[in-house]
Amino acid sequence: MINTSSVQENEVVLQQILAACEASRLLETKQFMQHGTTSVYQHCIAVARVSCMLADNMGLSVNRESLIRGALLHDYFFYDWHVPNPEHRLHGFTHQKRALQNAMDDFALTTVEQNMILRHMFPLTPIPPACLEGWVLCIADKFCSTLETARFTNNTFARAFYLGPGEME
Ligand SMILES: [Fe+2]
Ligand SMILES: [Fe+2]
């Protein structure tokens, strides 16, 4: 059963971090599609919400701020990976390093947040995350990517992650 109060607390922290990111390039990720009709920006917010939900429901002791910040920045790149371009060949194997570099250019990240971003493509890339927050992000990212690729994001269940609490019409 979903604990409504922890969902609301997570949302407050998520909105605080999002507000702090407004001066960064995060909003630029709205213009790039991630999977199906979901933008990179929407994907990252959904991954942050699902990460919190997973951590809460499994009773994991994680740093919530790092979990949210790492999830929001895990795909911090600025191109449409569907458009063929030698600059972003092998996107699945390279974008995590580019996201980390971009994020470090714009934010002071903890070692946990850096590791989350760099290792989030495990097991496609062979080195696993070195922190619990990174494992949670890995799972949440695959979950959201599957929903988006299957164009399941208009489903009521999925919209809870994509629109957020209080935004369901
Ligand atoms: Fe990614
Ligand atoms: Fe992702």
List bound small molecules: fe (ii) ion
What structural class do the secondary elements suggest?
A: mainly alpha
Rg estimate, integer Å: 15 Å
Q: Look at the structure and name the CATH superfamily.
A: Hypothetical protein af1432
Proportion of residues in extended strands: under 5%
What does the largest sheet look like?
2 strands, antiparallel
Number of strands: 2
How far is the N terminus from the C terminus? 22 Å
Reading the helices and strands in chain order gives HEEHHHHHH
> Can you tell me the CATH architecture?
Orthogonal Bundle
What is the total number of structural domains? 1
Question: What does it look like?
Answer:
The longest helix is centred in the first third of the chain and has 18 residues, at 40-57. The protein has helices spanning 4-20, 40-57, 64-72, 91-106, 111-119, 132-149, 156-163; strands spanning 33-35, 38-39. It has a single domain (8-160), classed as Hypothetical protein af1432 (Orthogonal Bundle). 56% of the residues lie in helices and 3% in strands. It is mostly helical. The two termini are 22 Å apart. A two-stranded antiparallel ribbon has the order 1-2. It contains 7 helices and 2 strands; from the N terminus they run H-E-E-H-H-H-H-H-H. The radius of gyration is 15 Å and the shape is globular. Bound molecules: fe (ii) ion (FE2) (2 copies). Residues 43, 47, 74-75, 141 line the site of one fe (ii) ion. One fe (ii) ion binds next to loops.
